[in-house]
Amino acid sequence: MKTKKNCRDGIPNVTNSFADIHCHPHMRSFNWLHEPGIPESEGKYHPWWIILPKFKSSKKGNRAAAYSQCDMVRVKNGNLKLAIVSLYPMEKGWVKGPANMVKGRLFDFKKIFGDNLFNDIFSGGMDLAVKPLLFLLGRSKKEDPALRDLLQSVFMKLPVKKINFYQSDEYDYFRELKEEREYLLKKNKVETRSEIYIPPKKRYIKKSKIRKKCPAELDATGTYVLAENGDHVKEIINSGKIAFVLSIEGANALNTHLPPEKVIKNIEEVKKWKESLFFITFTHHFYNYLAGHAHSIPDIGKALIDQQEGMTGGFNNAGWDIIRYLLSLDTNNNYKPEEFNRRILIDVKHMNVISRMEFYNEIVNPCFRKGDIIPLIASHVAFSGREKLTDLVANMNQEVDGFSADRFGHTFNAWNINLCDEDVITIFKTGGLIGINLDQRILGIPKKDKKDKEKHIEYIWQNMKAMMKAVIESDETGLPPKKEVVNLLCLGTDFDGYIDPADKYSTTLEFQDLRDDLVKTINKDPEKDDFLFNTYTVDDLVEKICFSNAYDFVVKNFK
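Above: the chain sequence. Below: its structure as C-alpha cells.
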C-alpha cells in the first residue's frame, strides 16, 4: 500500500480557530467498533481510535465513506475548536428498501472471506470497479445475505453486520442514542493520543510506520470536553481544549413511533443529561410520525431507498405535542421551564417546506409577538434560489437531480431541503444561525463543475452571499439592524454525514484553505462592500463565518 503520495505532507499550517455547528466526529469509529449488546473493552472502544482511511478517496474529495472527514485526529490537526456533535441513530428507512425491490440473493461472502474482510470489501476497502463483478459471480437463490443488504452496504459504506443489526427487531433508536452518547463520554476530559484500527486484510501495515508517514490523518494528542452550557464552552476553549456540544439529528432518535407519552418520557431523560443537549434536528430523511421531512436522496438512491411516506405532509397532533415539549411550551405557546424543564432548540434542516411554514406560523411567530424569541437554527443548509415558501411548495414535485433556480445572478439547488428568502429572514429575525453545508449537491454545484475544484469556493460564497442579500434587500419591517446579517452565517459542514464534499475542502484539515480561499474570493467580488457596512473588513467577515458567529451564538443561547 503506497501511502506517502496519497496522504498529506505533514500537519497543515493552521493559524485560525474554526467552529462547525453540524458534524459527526465519532461516527465512523462508532459504526465500526460498536458491538450492540456486548460489553466493550475500555482500551479499544473510544473516539480516538481512527479507522485506517482510504487516502486516495480523501485526497480526491470523494464521498466520505472509506475515510473520515472529521475524526478526532482531523479535528485536532485542523484546529476545530468548537463542534456541535450530532448524535444519529441510523434510521431504519436506510436498510428496509422499497417494497418493489428485486428479491435476488448472493452467496454468503462472509463464509468465504471472513466477517472482517467481508465488511472491509463492502465498506470502501475494495476498488469500486471490482464490486459489480462480485455481484455477477455471486448470484444464488439459496443463500444469504439478501442482495438488497449487500447493495445497501455498498451504497452506505457500512459493515453488513451493522445493516443486519439495523434491520433486526432488537434495534432500538433511543437505546442506540444513549450508547452513542456513552461512546463520546469514554474519553470526555481525558487527554488522549490517537490509536489506529487496521482492518484484517491490511494488517501487514505497521502502525508506527503509517502513523509517521501520515501524521495529519493518523497522529494527534488532545482533549475534548462535552460542554454543559455556553459558559462552559467559553471555559473549555480558553483552556486550550476542544469544546463538543451535543445535538441530535432526527427526532426518531426519541422513538417517535411510540405513543407521545412514551416519547415525552424519553425527552425528560434527555433534558436531565449533565452534558446538555443544545438542539435537535426535528426531522431527517424518513418519516418520524410527527412532521413531514424534505426530499433529500438523489435519484440514484431510489433503487434502494424509499422516503415517500410523510414527505409531502406537515405536522400532526403528536408532532405539535413533542415540539412544544422540547421548547418547554404549553398548548398556548407559553414558555414554562418550571414545568417542562430546560428548552431544547429546534433545527429546521430536513423539515420539508410545509412543516417549516406550519412551525413558523403556529409557534415561532406567535411566540415572537409575545416576546419569547426562539432562535432558529438551520444547521447544514444552502440557498434554494426561491423567494417565497409558497414557491418551494409549488415546485416540490419537480425535484430531480439538477433541478435548480436562478436568483441574484447565480444558480442554486432548488429542492425544498434548502432555504428560501422567507426562511432566511425568519431565522435572522429570531437571532438564529445558518450553517453552510459543504456537500456539492446541496450547494448546487452542477455536473460540469464537479471536478473543477478551484470553482467550488465560488459556489460556497454565492450561497452565503445570496442569503445575506435576502436580508439586506428585504422590505419586511421589525427586523434587527441589517448590518447584523454578518452574524447570521457559519460553517455547518455535515462532515462524516456521508456527504460528497466540495473537492478541495473534503476534511477539517482543509479548513485553513477554505478560509484563505474565501478571503480571496470575497475580495474579488465587486459587491463585497454591500456586506461590510463600512464597519468590517473581509477578514472580519470570514472570521465570523469560520468561528466567532457560531461561538457567540452558543455562548449566548446554550443555557
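Residues 102-145 have pLDDT under 50 and may be disordered.
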